[in-house]
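Q: I'm writing up a methods section and want to include an example of the input and output format. Could you take the sequence below and give the corresponding predicted structure tokens, formatted cleanly so I can copy it straight into the document?
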Amino acid sequence: SGEATGTPSSFARIVDEKSQGAAGGDSIVGIQTRTLNKIEHDTDNIVTLSDNKEFTLQAGTYIINLSAPSYKADSHNVSLYSVTDGGGVSSGTAEFSNTTAGASNRSFSAYSVTLTAPHTYKVEQYTESLQSDNGLGTASKLGVSIYATVDIQKVGTGGGSGDSIWTEEDGKATY
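A: Here is the clean output for your methods example:
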């Protein structure tokens, strides 16, 4: 019949939200943990948030997309760190937000994983230069400011023509 019969996907979004006019915070020289202080969307309760910085996912297959801004911090990039495993699992795009020109931009990263047990993660960001107050993002003058974002999709088993899930092993895609 061509009708999908698998488990549907679930979606959650975690953000660093600050009040109107509040900047993203100081950038440092080196790696720092980004604030994650609000679950903006999670109708299926697929994620828990703790200490305004770590999130935990239960067993399942996930696609995790994250991004974070930088202002006047020169070279910067975002990464996903597995607290459970004690190491980085995904490095983001290399970006440059010039200290003299006053540039601002975002680094993006994506990660897919199948977990057999709960795992805890945090978002880290490397910045090359110190920028007080707004190095981790400039404030919005219209409503709240959203800085770091983590979008999580829990992938279902599919449906219709089979129960295949895309994985990547040794640089080759398999289904």
